[in-house]
Amino acid sequence: MNALQIKKGSTKHSAYNLRPQFSDVQETHTLAVLVDNEAGVLARVIGLFSGRGYNIDSLTVAEVDHTGHLSRITVVTRGTPQVIEQIKAQLGRIIPVHEVHDLTTEGPSVERELALLKVSGDGDKRVEALRLADIFRANVVDSTLSSFVFEITGTPEKIDAFADLMRPLGLVEMARTGVAALARGIA
């Protein structure tokens, strides 16, 4: 059978079907980036995202090795698998970057976020807010006659669910730290 005899529309035997398949499905990935703790490094890393139009859903930064002057940047971002691979490759080329880990693909990881929520209300709404806080294991860290400030730690989804329940009860203000994440087990 020659190429002219292959049924029209069939790609089973075509040499033109060697192109890699690209996905347009958006995925959320958590990246852990170990960098030198020096002025301008965060700006360079974040500049990579803004310069190419990539969005950052969450960002946390802290020094993790005082003697080695290293900081860890945890970035939650979204994109197609090809975009995520491009982000990781471009991050790895920045000079003060030592390591780039995609915690989403490298195996199980633990992600947590801290949030403070100010809820204003009285009477039954105050009682309901305290009841829900107990269910979600949120702590009251400040209280006045007209409001509470709750502290909650957990996955971003848990914090979203708690905030959604607090909105009709008088959620006034919220502050979130962003995701902190570590791979499970020994690396």
TrEMBL record:
EC class name: transferase
UniProt pathway annotation: Amino-acid biosynthesis; L-valine biosynthesis; L-valine from pyruvate: step 1/4; Amino-acid biosynthesis; L-isoleucine biosynthesis; L-isoleucine from 2-oxobutanoate: step 1/4
ACT domain segment(s): 30-105
Keyword Transferase carried by entry: yes
Gene Ontology CC terms, in alphabetical order: cytosol
Database matches in Pfam families: ACT_AHAS_ss, ALS_ss_C
Reactions listed under catalytic activity: 2 pyruvate + H(+) = (2S)-2-acetolactate + CO2
Transmembrane segments: none
One GO molecular-function entry: acetolactate synthase activity
Entry keyword set: Amino-acid biosynthesis, Branched-chain amino acid biosynthesis, Transferase
GO biological process: isoleucine biosynthetic process; L-valine biosynthetic process
The EC number(s) this enzyme carries: 2.2.1.6
PANTHER family, sorted: ACETOLACTATE SYNTHASE SMALL SUBUNIT, ACETOLACTATE SYNTHASE SMALL SUBUNIT 1, CHLOROPLASTIC
Function: Catalyzes the conversion of 2 pyruvate molecules into acetolactate in the first common step of the biosynthetic pathway of the branched-amino acids such as leucine, isoleucine, and valine.
Protein family membership: Belongs to the acetolactate synthase small subunit family.
Assembly information from the UniProt record: Dimer of large and small chains.
Name used for this protein in its record: Acetolactate synthase small subunit
Species of provenance: Pseudooceanicola nanhaiensis
